[in-house]
Design a protein that fits this description.
With 89 residues, the protein is mostly beta strands. 10% of the residues lie in helices and 35% in strands. The protein has a five-stranded antiparallel β-sheet, with no helix packed on it. The termini are far apart.
């Protein structure tokens, strides 16, 4: 048995530590949270609804707020330049 539960999206990507710390500083709890963020990437791409759950990017739209699913995350988390926190659940 694993000590950590895997993310709801098997294809999720881990958020870099600097952005995890940023979320903590801006009101996210240390554990058991889901955050909806706007992410700006290198090159000007903007992701309006990036879903972050317990430090993992699990979805790029609000469709990922419920259920277990598989969705490919087509970004490199290291290319995130800014994050805006929209909602924390």
């Amino acid at each position: 048995m694993h000590s950590k539960t895997p993310p709801r999206n098997r294809l999720a990507k881990v958020l870099p530590p600097e952005w995890r710390n940023w979320l903590l500083e801006h009101g996210c709890p240390k554990r058991k949270y889901t955050a909806v963020c706007r992410a700006h990437l290198v090159g000007g791409r903007i992701i309006e609804d990036m879903i972050v759950e317990q430090g993992w990017i699990i979805a790029l739209s609000r469709d990922g707020l419920a259920g277990i699913f598989e969705q490919r995350i087509d970004l490199d988390p290291r290319q995130i330049t800014t994050i805006e926190l929209k909602q924390v659940v």
